[in-house]
Design goal:
This protein is mainly α and about 190 residues long. It is built from 5 helices and 2 strands, in the order H-H-H-H-H-E-E.
Amino acid sequence: MKSNFLNIFFLIFATSLFAQTSDSLVVKKEERVIVVSDSLLPKEEYNPLAPAKAAFYSAVVPGLGQVYNKKYWKIPIIYAGMAAGIYFYKQQDKDYDRFRNAYKRRLAGYTDDEFQGISDDRLINAQKSAQKNKSISIIVTVAFYLLNVVDANVDAHLQQYEVSEDLSLQPNFDYNQFNAKPQYGMSLTYRFK
């Protein structure tokens, strides 16, 4: 019994000796945190005034906001839309003046206008139609101008938007065990960090 007692005492004493080591013998492990970027492009600093600048530039000179956003391919579309609206406005204005002058000459008693086989009612309707088309042309021109400003603003916002893998929409295929038929669907996955 005495030897069992000594063995237990020795075991407790030996383990306490190994537990107490000096600081010179302890090797401290340094922890390193590695941050991996989830984007292939370098991260740019967030600029909260970029959308306002792009919208202001596009409002002053159409297309300048797209230059600021480096979306050069949109500039010809903007100018083509605005030029088409202006072209059709001028064309409809000429037609309106022709119809109006012919109608005025008829009211004055002249019959030598360029619309010999057309009645007075048709000339009045042609004037109304040309006036309506002029208004539509103005609306199209203004719409392309406003679209230019809004596009520059939204594009500047989206350039600073960070896209990560935390939110994904994936097709889902599942097998129904009750009726032995496949089920198709979409799953929206959101991961919290």
